[in-house]
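Form 7-S
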Amino acid sequence: SPLDKIRASGVLRVGIEPGFLPFEMRTPQGEWIGFDIDMMQAYAQSVGVKPEFVSTKWEGIIPGLMAGKYDVIVSGMTINPERAKIVLFSEPYYEAGLKIMLPQKHANTIKTWQDLDQPGKIIVLKLGTTGDIYATKVFKKAELRRMDSEADAAQSVVLGKADAFVYDKPFVDIFAMTRGDKVFTLSDIVSKENLGVAAHKKNQALIDSFNGFLANWRKTGEYDKAYKSNFVDLAWKKKFPESMK
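Output:
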């Protein structure tokens, strides 16, 4: 089985795109850190192998899995019906959702997503994400601009080049918390989502193995420790230069 092959090789290859706070990040020194990293290091240890993180652009992450470049995708991926036609998902490991971040200049004028949907308003999105899918369905009058990275999209809001960024709640909340003088978020979660680990359709044994690990990881309290470290204490921040905090 695929799981036997992974054990024989001694390596679990994980397709991942760095930059999604606080799930997967790469320090200037090349170290992988974040909640997803902690989780997959713990899972790999549970099956007696080491994780190998394969940096992959988001638009190519599922094709890379299909081509056998890695065994699983663990990159803050939302479970949805379209993707489930192609890949096999694990049980959800995190309940997320979409939020909207805006520059402070709109704090007194924009209170809902409907206020944003006006001619002349620019909404930035990360290409191919659920934020992109949601905004395409909902916004009919505003201009939608798609970008390759969440960091660039968020920075365009900070600089006032865009009127909003629609993206995953954890990233938006942490980014806004560190730049409260520049941006704010609408309080409502515009769409609830679950994140999951994805594998090739033929790799049911691998997904079953991960699901068993996840249940035990929660039971032992290690999930809560990783959550606190990454989402509450923001322990990863000390690994980055001051300019990135």
